[in-house]
Specification:
Blueprint: E1 5-10, E2 16-22, H1 29-34, H2 38-47
């Protein structure tokens, strides 16, 4: 499986800018901050 994490930034005018792409980005901190179940859903995707 190929994937990556894209970092974007929105300016005050609503324009989106590409900053970088990381081959193995970090996202599990979102589960703590936002109360999401990102890690669990990612595992479900890998197992399907």
């Amino acid at each position: 499986m190929r994937g990556g994490a894209v970092d974007l930034r929105e300016d005050p005018d609503g324009r989106i800018f590409f900053l970088e792409i990381n081959p193995s980005g970090q996202f599990l901190f979102l589960d703590v901050i936002a109360g999401t179940r990102t890690g669990e859903r990612y595992c479900d995707l890998l197992l399907s």
